Structure formats: C-alpha cells, structure tokens
Amino acid sequence: MKTILLVPTAEGVGLTSACLGLVYALECQGIKAGFLKAFSQDATAQNDSSTALYRHISQSQTVEPIAYSTLTSRLALGQTDELLEDAVSLHREISKKHDIIIAEGLVPNGRDAFAAQLNAQLAQALDAKVVIVSNADLNHAKTAAEQVQSQLRHYALERAAGVLFMRTKGLSDAQIPVTLDASLRLVNETAQFTQALQKSHAHLGGKNLPIIGLVPFSSTLSVPRLSDLAQHIQATWLNSGENQRRVLHSSLVAGNVGNELNKFVAGELIITAADRVDVLLASQLSNQNGTALAGIVLTEQQAPSNDVLNFCQSHKSGLPILHTGLTAYDTLQKIQNFCNEIPQDDTTRAEQVTHFVGSHLDPEWINQLVSNTHKPRLSPSAFRHELVQKSIHAKKRIVLPEGDEPRTIEAAAICQSRGIAQCVLLAKPEHVAEVAKARGVELPAGLEIIDPDSIRADYVEPMVALRKGKLDAIQANEQLQDTVVLGTMMLALDHVDGLVSGAVHTTANTVRPAFQLIKTAPEYSLVSSVFFMLLPDEVYVYGDCAINPAPNAEQLAEIAIQSADSAKAFGIEPRIAMISYSTGTSGTGADVEKVAEATRIAQERRPDLLIDGPLQYDAASVESVGRSKAPNSDVAGRANVFIFPDLNTGNTTYKAVQRSANVVSVGPMLQGLNKPVNDLSRGALVDDIVFTIALTAIQAEQQAAPIEAVAAV
Fold it and tell me: What is the distance of C-alpha 610 from the center of its chain?
C-alpha cells in the first residue's frame, strides 16, 4: 500500500483541488485511489468539506477526519502519539478497499502553529511519500523555491516525492477539459520554470524531487457563486433569483450611471447604495436584454421598498438582489478578500477543477508512482479517458443529423476542438451560428456545417438503388427531407464513418433508416445493443437492453459474442455471464433451457471467450454468492458482461440499476450493423453526446481493423 501526503506551503494554495486532481489522474490510469484527511481544521463545520467533495467526485466512501476540537485538546495534553495512532487507524480502514491513498495534510496558518510539525509526524506514521503543494509566479522563481524549501526542511530527502505548483501566475488562462487531456500539459513551461528554480535551489526539479505539475491560475475556475458571498457580506436576499450565478468581477457604481455602463457585463456583481434606484433599474434592463449580471448588492441605509422593487420589476426576473448594512467600500473589500476554497456543495466547480488539475500532472511521474503497486481495473474515469484517447487516435468523421439542436452543437464543438472526431452538422449554417451565439459556444475551425438542401439531390439516385425498387425518386427525395435518413445515406456511401442521433428523435427514427440502408454485417444475423454501466468501481456491459424483444438461443449466443467483442474494443477483458432466474441446473423450464443452449452455442463458436450460464445476477456479480452457487465457474462472481435473456429483463434491469444506484450509463451502442449508428437519450447531456460521438468513432475504427489492434490502442 502506497500513501502520498500532500503538504501545503501556505493557506490558499489549492490543497484540496490538488488532492482531488491527483485522485482523478490515478483513476484514469485504472488505479483505485482512496482519500484521507486525518485532521480537520474547521472548528465549526459538522462535516469536512474536502471529504465531502471527494465522495462526490469519486463516488467512493472514506472516513471522516478527527475533529478539530479533539486535535487541539490532545495536542494540549501532550497526546501526540495517541493522535497519530488514531490517524493510522483511519488509514488502515481506507486501505482495505484501495490500491493507493492520497492524504491531505494540515494547512499552516496563524492559528495552528503545530501544522508543519504534525504533518511531518503524520508522514512518518503513515510511511507516506510527501508532495509539496505551493503557488508560483513564473516571473518570481526564487520566491517559489523558498516557499517549497520552507516545508521541505521538515522531511528527510528520501521521503519527498515531488513538488506541485498550483494557481501558477504568468500563464495564459487555460481551457477546462471534458476529461484528462494530455494536450493541456505545460511541458515546455515546466522545463523552463525548473531551470529558473535551480538557479537558487539546485535540487528542485531533479530526479529525486521532480516538478510533477504546473497548474495555471484559472479565473474561470476560481470564481464563487453569489450564494457563497451572501453570508460573507452579511447580506439578506431581496430577490434570490438565480442565486447560483458566478461572480467573475465586482464593481462599485457610485457616479452617474450613464458614465459607468461599461461595468454592466456578464458575470459582474454591481455594488451600489440602496437609494440608487437608477442603478437598480439599469441592472434590471441589462439583465432583461440578455446580459447575465452576477447580481446587484444594495448597501447602507434601508433596503428599497417593495414598491421600488416592483417598479423595477425586480421580483419578476432571475436577477439576484442583495442588501447589506455595510458601506459600499467595505462590501467591495470583503468580496475581494473572500476565501477561494471550493464550498462542499459547489460540485460543478469541484468537478471542473478536478479535471483541470489532473490534466496538468506529469503522467510519467504517476506511472512511476503506481508501478508494481496496483491491480489494473477499468474504472469509470479510466473508461471515459480511454474512450476519448482512442477516438482521437481513430480520427473519424461523424455525422450529426440534428445539426441545429443546442446540445448537439455544443458537443460537436467540444469534439472538434479536442480532436475526438471530425464532426459534420446537418443544418442551415445560419441556424447553427445563431444557436451557438445564444449558448456562448465558439464554433471551432474545421467544424463542418452542411446545409441539407445543398446535398439532398446527390443522394436520391443512390437511395433508389440501395432500396432496390422499393421506392422511386420522388419517394426517395421525400424521405431524404428527414436529416436522419440523409445522414444515413452519407454513411451508406462512406462519405462519413458514423452517425449519432436521438437528442430529439426516437430510437425508431434513428434505427429504422440504418436497418434499411446500412443493414447487418456479413458475420451477423441481427443487430443488438449494449449499455456501458459506469459503476463506482468498475464498468459493466449490459446486452441487449434496447433492440431485440425475445431472441432465441442462436440469437442470444450472437448477442453475447457481439457484446464480448464490443467490450474488448473498449479495453474491457470480457467475462460473460448468461443471465437467467436459475444458476446451473438448479432450475428448469423453457427460459432456462434457452439460456443454457445459448451458452453452449456461444462457447462452441468462440472458445477463446470466458462464457458461463445460466447464472443468476447475484451469482454472476457477487464473489461470495458465485463461489457458493457455481464454485467451478471462471465467470461466477467476476462477470463484467451481462447478457439478458430478453428485452423485458434487460431494459428493466438497466433502468433499475441506473436510477436506484445513480449509475451513469453510456449507450445504447448498436452492434452488428455494417457501419456504426448510435442512438441518444432525448434527455442526453452534452457530455453524454460527446462520449457517444467518441464511442461511435471507436466503433468505426473497430470495423476497419481487427479487434485486437483497436484494443491495443
């Protein structure tokens, strides 16, 4: 068991963000990383913020830290040894379920003079390697080096594992990745900064003390919500509105409002005296005209009356309005001095920061950290990471028939900018531009937008030929008015490599043209589907949960083989369980016999696969039950591909698991077609569409090359 203790040089260096980013980077390497905060420094909170954020980000459990009151009282009584024994007990509890532990150290501050010494003692007690976390300014390398050295002096050189610079200034503001994105890593900047550090401290950045990451300061990720500021400035809500708006900047409006209109921009918090009805009215008009101000704070005196608020229509909009008895100047000062740490309920910001930090960590350092210490598994984070990386490698062209749908446009922009796929939007270019502007989406260079009217005629004759006399040119032209049909024809003629639809269309609308025009691959007799179920610890594959109502034994065997090959293509070594209400020969009946026969057929056709059945779900997925019910099975208790006997069972099970256990599911992914076509849920989020596009690109690569070659990418 390896433990890494992250120790900060000062307050406000982003310690929790550093811990969560490292946990995420490890998860993307298939490492089950635990989190330990041994000692709380919050004297008032009922639960620890860092621990709560870890639970949300990783969907894993951990222990609560030792309370601050207990910490200080034991130190006062000279019970340091007992305190460290309790910390070791917490560590051992976490180590039962994790391959590596990331521990958060104490923050040195004016109140807790014991922090630095206790961190050193904790590192010894846990036998932990230490990473120093500090801020940096590229223009002041010597200052950064001295801050790191001030903490390093507490540790033996062999215990130090590296230095992580957070909130680094002197760099351009970086973009926020969807997943671990190697292209964001600042390799050259890190090398140059290391050379600057070594001018005064030669050991920094060397082999024994590497710089493991240079994380830029991001103004986008460092902003609080208005609700976070309200209590800090002793304010009451006059209109709560959309109180989760982010405060990018704060401006005091004291003069003539006509001379200060430049301050009324998106994300701005306007601060003004409570009797400035003109400023209140200007803020409301600005908000109504589409400028999303963060809010307005009215200061001093008495709050405006309801008559004034109603006159400005302030109660009827999303513009948040606060009132505080502080002066306008004091309000601005308090806001500027607000703590930058992430509140435990700000999970959106926490997730973005976690991805951001993880993308700037040195992968070679992480590989050395975990070498020979972990059991590889495909975690949800690793699955998403592999999905993106393999799709980037595939370089496929994916058509999106719902080209003017807002989520689809945003997803296409992300995929295009990250190289996940060459996206083709079927829509009027002016409509796409209008939607993108409204959503604040910048359309990247290279994103293709094709007006369906400009290409429809090109596909009439080929469609008539493909349907072999089942329709004439007039009928073909009529059907091609549907952009899903048009996109499917583009795929059929190899003008694109895959198709993704379903954000506003039903599954039938997406799948029917594929059945008619793409058809099944030569080696298969049917089309089926799988869902990738992203459980907290592992990714499962469920098939078929979307297409075939009542497959016979031969078809069920084919679904199992298709699903196994799909699992392999996405880095999952398949262990296939043929699910039934009976395990082995414990039950009888036509349904059980069908599953048993399907198992026999699948094993005969693919002896290279681990396939067993009939197995009950618990016997397939729970190790103790599997040992009891099927002790001689190589699959029981270890299955990761689950083949359900019919659509009723499969669809019910996947939805029950998804909703009851709050599990993310990616799919359905169609398998067995000549070319990849995939359906979306009409409630799909932007990230869902991004990952489905990536999945489709990998399928296209899989069909163009042997499965083994794709799996090795």
Answer: 31
Instruction: Write the CB contacts of 430 (distance below 8 Å, at least 6 apart in sequence).
Output: none
599-644 pLDDT per residue, tens: 999 999 999 999 998 999 999 998 889 888 988 898 999 899 999 9
Q: What DSSP character marks residue 108?
A: P
pLDDT in tens, 418-427: 899 999 999 9
Q: Tell which residue, 548, 557, 500, 546, has the closest CA to residue 675.
A: 500
Instruction: HSE, CB side, 13 Å, CA atoms: give it for residue 54.
Output: 29
How is residue 347 written in tokens?
A: 């999970």
Residue 525's φ and ψ, nearest 5 degrees, are -110, -10
DSSP structure class, residue 112: -
**Which string of DSSP letters, residue by residue, matches 360-412?**
TB-HHHHHHHHTTT------HHHHHHHHHHHHHHH--EEEES-TT-HHHHHHH
Instruction: Please tell me the pTM assigned to this model.
Output: 0.62
How far CA 577 is from CA of 543, 571, 583, in Å, comes to 11, 18, 10
Nearest CA among 343, 292, 349 for reference residue 320: 292
Q: What is the dihedral of CA 490, 492, 493, 495, to 10 degrees?
A: 40
Please identify which residue in the block is written with the tokens 């059980």: 592
Q: Are 165 and 12 in contact (CB under 8 A)?
A: no
Do 146 and 153 meet the contact criterion of CB atoms below 8 Å apart? Answer: no
**What three-state secondary structure class fits 57?**
helix
Burial letters 648-669, b for 16+ CB under 10 A, else e = ebbbebbeebbeeeebbbbbbb
| H/E stretch holding 621 | helix 617-621
**Burial, 706: exposed, middle or buried (Cβ in 10 Å; 0-12, 13-18, 19+)?**
exposed
Calpha distance 363→191 (Å, rounded): 15
Which span out of 54-63, 184-193, 660-669, 693-702 was modeled with the highest average pLDDT? 693-702
Tell me: cis bond preceding 551? Omega within 30 of 0 counts: no
